[in-house]
Specification:
This protein is an all-alpha fold. The chain is built from 29 helices and no strands. Helix 9 runs parallel beside helix 12 and helix 14 packs antiparallel against helix 15.
Length: 647
């Protein structure tokens, strides 16, 4: 032994407690001899990190720590259980049963507070204000809507039932947000409503804002119509969601006819053949065409509506077609009012469609063509140009004109004579060709019938003239014979003298107006006509005196001779006068009874539908308005001609 440390290699000392690197899972049994054996070598330099961790955190230590962790976990749970027992959930408020009830539960102060709070917190983000108000309404009215289009509610529902104070806050918020933000929020609200509906969440609040923006800013909504169409395509298999989209966007047509028609064409019409949407879409078109819009129609818009009315598509609601047909005269007027439209092109387009669709469709096109010809007779030249290429259509139009020749104006009838001569020469030229054109035979027959048609006045005018003449005669006879029937009535109470007094008052009023308007000219006319006026006044006085004399003589004759005549009749035919009186009284009573029965029958069975008093009144008012407009147009035309002549 040299007294120095020796290291023995190659042999494993079984008594050594130094862990071997290969035995990773074994732990050393000693604690105190580590520093002596390793001689300053650190364990971290010899063993891997995983074994070093096992040395400092062995299994016995883990076993000792586990119970402490369990006790700590139990101790933290116990106070939670104890604190949860005494707490009780507050009772939830009952949801409203209707939209009206939900709106009544909202106070103006509460709604205004939400608006002011969000506005103060986000002064530069108006969309946040609108979102906060919308979510507040959603929470206050958590109602599930069974009818997404409110078909049984009045127009404008549910915004129409909102209290004016709440509506004023919505109006203020949208107005302060500006048009651009309102347009952006319409898209956001529409998408959010669709998403919430698909999840079954309340979405009434969105409807108020969507409805208000669509009613007041329709053009902003239609600018992003392509986005709404894409959204509809995504949900068109879910009827309740898609109908909500159609309902929200469709409100643009209430105040803007062109925007409503664009929404109908792009958003709604593609769904017409689907059973879930067809009735609502046609109802929308009916409401759109029934409103009194002054916006003129273009040729394409007119044909779009007409093709839809007479559509034979699947699931088309035929019960609404009759109501749509009644609106066609209004559509014709809107087309004729379009001063920018080239009616020569309109005539060509309409004639080319005359051999298509049903008989009713053809009659509607013929009717509007006649109105165009009446308004502008130069459009007949457009028909003459395309006659040879549209023989079948021309034959249909000629037959219609032949059947309704009595309703045509004289100027148009005269123009048609020249046109028929041109058609005859074209037919002769086409007949000389080897290959006969389709419809040539029908066109030749139609031209022949139109030439042979007798230009007779319609019977209705003769009947009206006869009725008017009979009324005038009966009224004149009543006025003239009244003085001899009511002998005891004073002269001032007779109808003849009352009418003369009214005429005299009217003459004095006209005289005063003319003196104020054209004093010089009227003064000269008055001087010339004054002798004739004096003569007329003298003749009237002579007539009145003669009438009074005749009345006196007739009264004396009746007082003297009538009792003798009655006594003579009673002597030779006793009871004749009484029986006659009874028969006449009975006849009068029966006449009154049958008259009342006839009036009731006419009211209930005849004067309904188009002959109803309301419809007749609407037609009369429309005719009066049209006449007034034409009179004003004629006045301006005459004025322009006079000014042109003077210059």
């Amino acid at each position: 032994m040299s007294g120095q440390w020796e290291v023995v290699r190659g042999k494993n000392d079984k008594r050594s407690k130094l862990p071997v690197p290969k035995e990773n899972n074994k732990q050393p049994d000693f604690k105190g001899k580590k520093s002596n054996i390793l001689n300053g070598v650190r364990i971290e330099d010899v063993l891997p990190k995983s074994q070093v961790k096992n040395l400092y955190s062995g299994k016995p230590a883990n076993k000792e720590n586990k119970p402490h962790e369990k006790t700590k976990h139990i101790e933290t749970k116990k106070p939670e259980k104890k604190s949860s027992k005494p707490l009780a959930e507050p009772p939830k408020p009952k949801p409203p049963k209707s939209i009206e009830a939900g709106l009544l539960s909202i106070t103006t102060e509460e709604f205004n507070l939400i608006y002011n709070r969000s506005k103060n917190a986000f002064p530069d983000t108006p969309i946040v204000w609108l979102k906060e108000l919308t979510q507040f309404l959603n929470q206050k009215i958590p109602i599930e809507i069974q009818d997404p289009v409110f078909s049984n509610k009045p127009l404008g529902y549910p915004l129409s039932v909102m209290p004016s104070n709440l509506k004023a806050i919505i109006e203020k918020a949208i107005k302060e947000a500006g048009k651009s933000n309102s347009q952006v929020y319409f898209d956001i609200a529409l998408t959010s409503m669709v998403t919430d509906l698909s999840k079954g969440l309340p979405a009434i609040g969105y409807r108020f804002f969507l409805q208000y923006i669509a009613l007041n800013e329709p053009k902003l909504v239609t600018e992003n119509l392509s986005k709404h169409v894409s959204l509809r395509n995504s949900y068109q298999n879910r009827a309740n969601v898609a109908l909500s989209i159609l309902w929200a966007v469709g409100h643009v047509g209430v105040n803007d006819f062109h925007c409503g028609l664009k929404v109908f064409e792009d958003l709604k019409l593609p769904l017409l053949e689907m059973k879930s949407y067809s009735k609502y879409i046609i109802k929308y078109l009916l409401e759109l065409t029934s409103r009194d819009h002054k916006a003129p129609l273009t040729k394409d818009q007119y044909l779009l509506i007409l093709d839809t009315i007479f559509s034979n598509k699947k699931n088309f609601p035929l019960e609404l077609q009759k109501d749509l047909v009644q609106n066609i005269p209004k559509l014709n007027q809107l087309l004729l009012n379009n001063k920018r439209e080239n009616f020569h092109g309109v005539v060509e387009s309409l004639i080319k469609r005359l051999n298509q669709n049903t008989k009713a469709y053809q009659n509607c096109l013929c009717q509007v063509l006649v109105e165009i010809f009446t308004k502008d007779q130069t459009t007949l030249n457009a028909w003459n140009k395309i006659y040879a290429r549209n023989l079948l259509s021309s034959a249909v139009l000629l037959k219609y004109l032949t059947r309704n020749s009595g309703n045509l104006k004289p100027a148009l009838r005269n123009s048609l004579k020249d046109l028929l001569l041109s058609f005859s020469s074209i037919n002769e030229e086409l007949s000389g060709r080897k290959k006969k054109d389709e419809g040539l035979k029908e066109a030749i027959e139609a031209v022949k019938e139109a030439k042979e048609q007798k230009q007779t006045k319609p019977k209705s005018r003769g009947l009206c003239r006869a009725v008017l003449s009979s009324f005038i005669i009966a009224f004149s006879m009543t006025v003239l014979f009244e003085p001899f029937i009511n002998l005891d009535r004073p002269k001032s109470d007779l109808c003849l003298f009352r009418l003369s007094g009214k005429v005299q008052q009217a003459a004095l009023w006209v005289d005063s107006k003319l003196e104020q308007s054209i004093p010089d000219s009227y003064g000269q006319v008055k001087q010339v006509a004054e002798p004739y006026g004096v003569l007329s006044s003298d003749l009237v006085k002579i007539g009145i005196n003669a009438l009074e004399t005749a009345r006196g003589n007739w009264k004396g004759f009746i007082n003297e001779k009538y009792p003798l005549a009655v006594a003579s009749i009673d002597h030779y035919a006793p009871g004749l006068l009484d029986n006659t009186k009874e028969v006449l009284t009975r006849a009068l009573q029966l006449s009154v009874h049958y008259y009342r029965t006839a009036v009731d029958y006419l009211k209930k069975e005849v004067f309904v539908g188009q002959l109803s008093p309301e419809n007749i009144q609407r037609i009369v008012v429309g005719a009066y308005n049209t006449t007034s407009e034409k009179a004003v147009e004629y006045y301006h035309w005459v004025y322009q001609k006079v000014q042109t002549t003077i210059k």
